[in-house]
Specification:
This protein is mainly beta. The protein has one helix spanning 34-42, and strands at 3-6, 10-13, 18-22, 50-56, 64-70, 76-81.
């Protein structure tokens, strides 16, 4: 079992968290048009390698956590709060 460091609670088992999606997706401007919103909701990358993701600590503090995780190995490089600016490691 993997462990995730919650910035609020410390290191916890992955089972306490739920994956919630890509943390690098930016919502289109309100006047962007229907195609932009369609793409935002339905057209997504399927990255290989390092990726920034949203995880929700449902079994703990219930806070949102950003996680830098390798989608191929499931290694977790770093975590932070929703407000933190995390970076993907260089390849």
């Amino acid at each position: 079992m993997h462990q995730i460091r919650c910035p609020h609670c410390g290191v916890r088992d992955e089972i306490e968290f739920r994956y919630r999606g890509d943390a690098s997706v930016v919502r289109p401007a309100p006047d962007a048009g229907g195609d932009a919103f369609y793409d935002h909701v339905y057209v997504r990358r399927d990255p290989k390698g390092w990726h920034i993701e949203w995880w929700h600590h449902v079994g703990g503090c219930r806070q949102w956590v950003k996680v830098v995780r390798n989608t191929m190995t499931h290694e977790i490089r770093s975590t932070g709060t929703a407000a933190d600016e995390l970076r993907v490691p260089e390849a």
